[in-house]
Amino acid sequence: MTWMVWTTPTAIFFSSIAAMLAGMTLWEILSPTIERKGFLPISTTRGDRLFIGLLSAAFIHLGVIGFTTLSIWIALALSAVWLLVLMRWG
């Protein structure tokens, strides 16, 4: 990825998102999803919950960076736990 002049963490971040999207595509092809209602106030599919999880992870990171002196690794851990909870029960 030197042609993009990315740092290693940036390359890992975007590669991970691409892998998640590819995995979700395969999962959707093998097992089509149905809408369901969890603790979110709307009916969602797996793709909807992944999108909401990624969007909220960005806000978690911005909140940690902007309002605390905590390590970014804590934001990563919080985001990962939130995404797992959202995908399972959201």
From TrEMBL:
The chain crosses the membrane at residues 12-30, 51-84. The keyword Transmembrane applies. It comes from the Bacteria. InterPro entries: DUF2160_TM. Keywords: Membrane, Transmembrane, Transmembrane helix. Pfam families: DUF2160. This is Small integral membrane protein. It comes from Vreelandella aquamarina. The lineage of its organism: Bacteria, Pseudomonadati, Pseudomonadota, Gammaproteobacteria, Oceanospirillales.
